[in-house]
Write a structure and sequence with these properties.
The protein is an alpha/beta fold and 400 residues long. The chain has 13 helices and 14 strands. The termini are far apart.
């Protein structure tokens, strides 16, 4: 009888002893697997940090409604993004990925929150820290990693690399600091001209915020009331320089002057989502552009060539990880409100790791693009043309 009670106790505790090691028992798995969706809270309301406002009478709501389905989807996307970037780090150190490589881990709530606040018909353009947005815009992990390794199955056929990835209504991926901002204003002008009620999200970092072309774009967007959401992802450091040393004013959300602005907690995916919805509604209503500053943090250095600890301490990075990590914050919310179980997250993490390993296997085994593909896609819809190679006697074909 005592043995039977011990066995039952182990089942409900989720552990059983095998050769002196505590393992999850089959009985416990059965108990977990039979837990129905009805046992979970389907929806909850969460408080979010109040946004700071510029030239606005009111801002985004300070409460966000989250369904269980949304929460699990946000978690999966952010965790996949995090694992993908860590795999890219590993492949780079193995010299399988070469050249420029700017990782996005730590800033996942920005990309996922923005995507949740707009539609797939809306447009987005960003700088060179682009892997996360490429993924949220619908490109697979396999295509992203294959692009990083320069393979034919990459999203830009292995010819773009880390900084030049594209997708439907996604315009990169731009290597020149700040150059994507006037391009984003141009996309917004096209939206206005076509009258399609779409917006363009135009992203740049705090390091690009002092560029002259950024202010020129602000001016034209305000004059023409373009449906453009300018977003400064303020991760505190432009390359190796802290924002305080680079900017006389670090209130980036006020930099538009005559353009309304909001400062947002960029580590909270719900806060980013609600702010993006607010900004998109502002633009769609014909009020013109709006500026958002997302206060966020990158865990890696500026790029893979930057160890990231010469201008900040390891303790600073660890403190952000322990107090403000966007993935941990969302997970804790879901568990504490009975919207998901720890076991679900463990299973999801296993699935994500497998997806990343499968993608990495493809990215290291897929063939590199052949020489005859080198000049393809110079033009969008022209017939084949001859392109001169490295000398006048080498001729290559360019096919659209």
């Amino acid at each position: 009888m005592q043995n039977m009670l011990t066995l039952i106790s182990n089942v409900f505790r989720g552990t059983a002893s095998k050769n002196g090691v505590q393992t999850v028992s089959e009985g416990a798995r059965a108990v977990v697997s039979t837990r129905s969706y009805a046992d979970f809270t389907p929806q909850a309301t969460f408080d979010t940090k109040k946004c700071e406002l510029h030239r606005l009478d009111h801002g985004p709501p300070q409460q966000a409604v989250l369904t269980r389905e949304q929460g699990l989807q946000y978690y999966r996307t952010m965790q996949t993004m995090r694992r993908m970037e860590l795999k890219a780090d590993q492949l780079y150190k193995q010299r399988i990925i070469r050249g420029f490589c700017h990782l996005y881990d730590g800033q996942e709530a920005c990309a996922v929150g923005i995507e949740a606040g707009i539609t797939r018909e809306d447009h987005l353009i960003t700088a060179y820290r682009t892997h996360g947005y490429t993924m949220t815009r619908g490109v697979s992990v396999k295509e992203i990693l294959a692009e990083l390794t320069g393979r034919r199955g990459g999203v830009t056929k292995g010819k773009g690399g880390s900084m030049h990835m594209y997708g439907k209504n996604f315009y990169g991926g731009n290597g020149i600091v700040g150059a994507q901002v006037p391009l984003g204003a141009g996309v917004a002008l096209a939206c206005q001209y076509q009258g399609n009620n779409q917006v363009c999200v135009t992203l740049y970092g705090d390091g690009a915020a002092n560029q002259g072309q950024v202010f020129e774009s602000f001016n034209m967007a305000a004059l023409w009331k373009l449906p453009c959401i300018f977003i400064c992802e303020n991760n505190q450091y432009g390359m190796g320089t802290s924002m305080e040393r680079a900017s006389a004013s670090t209130e980036y959300y006020k930099r538009g002057d005559y353009i309304p602005g909001i400062r947002v907690d960029g580590m909270d995916v719900l806060c980013v989502r609600e702010a993006t919805k607010f900004a998109a509604d502002h633009c769609r209503s014909g009020k013109g552009p709006i500026l958002m500053e997302l206060q966020t943090y990158r865990y890696h250095g500026h790029s893979m060539s930057d160890p990231g600890v010469s201008y900040r301490t390891r303790e600073e990075i660890q403190e952000v990880r322990s107090k403000s990590d966007p993935i941990s914050m969302l997970k804790d919310r879901l568990v504490s409100h009975n919207m998901a179980s720890v076991e679900e997250f463990k299973e999801m993490d296993i699935e994500i790791r497998k997806e990343i390993e499968d993608a990495a296997q493809f990215a290291t085994s897929d063939p590199e693009p052949p020489l005859e593909d080198l000049c393809d896609h110079i033009f969008y819809n022209e017939g084949p043309i001859e392109v001169r190679g490295t000398n006048p006697w080498t001729k290559l074909k360019s096919r659209s």
